[in-house]
């Protein structure tokens, strides 16, 4: 065995070790987060019913949408640039690393405040003409105040993730928010029966977690953002990359949430609550993918921009293998025991079990396709990813609108499944043709 082979094997073991250790830490924290979120769902359902949970779900979905818009795609581009520059610090790129953080904070400050002001001013108009219920005006105004805080929270989480502070990042992302909500609701739900109260509590939790993350980042990174010398990274370049990722993020958001908003328009809050519970279960499978993405994003970026193609392929293959073996048991449980799972939250509607099975199939294909979107974004192919997502989003809009009218609420499930399969298969095929890298794992193959 020659020296190059030995070094490659050694490096491969190091990268696999980082991914494996990161996976253990991430899934441990995410596992706790999953349990906490289901406890939170149970508490909200028990105290505020499906209607209260439906309102809470719409609030969370709106907050996520605003975070996509307000972050201008920086939550994803941060991963690409920090992974790239963090691996090149020895080559004199420390200023680039500092510059991208400074740009991110400046851009998000302006965008989030502008977005918040717009939402506050037009909250009544949106309530009447979009949500068809003037009662949502107050919750939208509250969302306008919380949105900037939540956007900065998202940026801080991704900043820590890019710097490979994986465990810390996941604590802020997965566990603290539901934990604070559970504590507050347990103490005060008997006193406050307003259906909007769970949303208010979540906003309070965002404020607390943001304060903690800012304090932690200040101690961990010790960046002096006021004294950054010249760097190669230009503002225009960052915005070009981030804007493509923004469109991609919004497209994925719409693919996941079109059904929620259509159900709100065609049915009632109780149906929204039931659909939200179904989606919570289907997302359990994708949490495995999210966990692997959390570890893989900086790793893919680092290896690609160092032009280490062999180790990049090994990292992809190892990640795909973990995804297959961790997600398959969860998928089988979801499709074999849908009624039992939904019964935990007193969901007895017959269509809910069918929806859970159908959407779970789509999410399973999503997971088996691997970190396709992340790979494209981390390797400078964000425009290709954007174009595929835009095409899928257009298709999803048509499918959801047509199928909900012909098949009822179950049509949303079919539209979601078809869209997910098309999106991820398209990206996996493109990556294989361009890079000759299989993003999926074939069992029992070498």
Low-confidence stretches: 1-10, 88-92, 224-230
User: What fraction of residues sit in β-strands?
Assistant: under 5%
- Which whole number gives the mean pLDDT? 79
H-E string: HHHHHHHHHHHHHHH
By DSSP (H or I, 4+ residues per run), the number of helices equals 15
> Any idea what the radius of gyration is?
22 Å
Q: Which percent bin holds the helix content?
A: over 70%
- Count of domains: 1
Largest sheet data: none
Name the structural class.
mainly alpha
What gap, in angstroms, lies between the N and C termini? 20 Å
Overall morphology: globular
Please report the total strand number as a whole number.
0
What does this protein look like?
- The protein is globular, with a radius of gyration of 22 Å.
- The chain has helices at residues 3-70, 74-86, 94-121, 123-129, 137-162, 166-188, 197-221, 235-266, 269-305, 309-336, 338-343, 350-368, 372-378, 382-407, 410-435.
- It has 15 helices and no strands.
- By secondary structure, the protein is mainly α.
């Amino acid at each position: 065995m020659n020296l190059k082979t030995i070094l490659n094997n050694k490096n491969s073991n190091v990268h696999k070790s980082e991914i494996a250790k990161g996976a253990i830490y991430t899934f441990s924290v995410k596992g706790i987060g999953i349990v906490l979120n289901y406890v939170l769902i149970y508490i909200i359902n028990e105290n505020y019913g499906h209607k209260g949970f439906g309102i809470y779900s719409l609030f969370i979905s709106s907050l996520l949408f605003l975070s996509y818009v307000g972050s201008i795609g920086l939550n994803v581009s941060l991963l690409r640039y920090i992974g790239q520059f963090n691996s090149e610090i020895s080559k004199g790129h420390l200023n680039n690393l500092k510059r991208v953080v400074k740009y991110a904070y400046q851009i998000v400050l302006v965008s989030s405040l502008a977005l918040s002001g717009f939402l506050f001013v037009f909250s009544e108009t949106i309530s009447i003409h979009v949500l068809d219920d003037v009662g949502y005006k107050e919750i939208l105004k509250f969302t306008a105040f919380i949105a900037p805080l939540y956007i900065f929270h998202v940026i801080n989480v991704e900043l820590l993730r890019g710097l490979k502070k994986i465990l810390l990042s996941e604590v802020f992302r997965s566990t603290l928010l539901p934990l604070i909500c559970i504590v507050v609701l347990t103490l005060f739900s008997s006193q406050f029966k307003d259906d909007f109260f769970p949303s208010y509590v979540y906003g309070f939790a965002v404020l607390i977690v943001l304060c903690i993350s800012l304090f932690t980042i200040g101690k961990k990174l010790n960046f002096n953002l006021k004294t950054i010398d010249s760097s190669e990274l230009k503002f225009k370049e960052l915005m070009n990359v981030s804007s493509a990722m923004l469109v991609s993020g919004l497209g994925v958001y719409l693919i996941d949430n079109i059904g929620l908003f259509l159900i709100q328009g065609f049915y009632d809050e109780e149906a929204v609550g039931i659909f939200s519970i179904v989606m919570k279960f289907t997302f359990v499978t994708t949490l495995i993918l999210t966990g692997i993405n959390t570890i893989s994003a900086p790793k893919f970026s680092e290896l690609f921009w160092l032009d280490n193609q062999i180790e990049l392929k090994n990292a992809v293959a190892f990640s795909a293998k973990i995804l297959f073996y961790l997600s398959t048991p969860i998928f089988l449980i979801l499709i074999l025991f849908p009624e039992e799972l939904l019964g935990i939250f007193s969901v007895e509607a017959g269509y809910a079990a069918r929806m859970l099975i159908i959407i779970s199939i789509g999410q399973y294909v999503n997971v088996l396709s691997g970190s396709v979107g992340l790979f494209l974004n981390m390797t400078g192919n964000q425009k290709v990813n954007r174009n595929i997502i835009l095409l899928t989003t257009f298709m999803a809009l048509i499918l959801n609108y047509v199928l909900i009218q012909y098949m009822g609420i179950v049509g949303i499930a079919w539209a979601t499944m078809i869209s997910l399969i098309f999106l991820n298969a398209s990206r996996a095929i493109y990556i294989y043709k361009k890079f000759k890298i299989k993003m999926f794992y074939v069992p029992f193959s070498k």
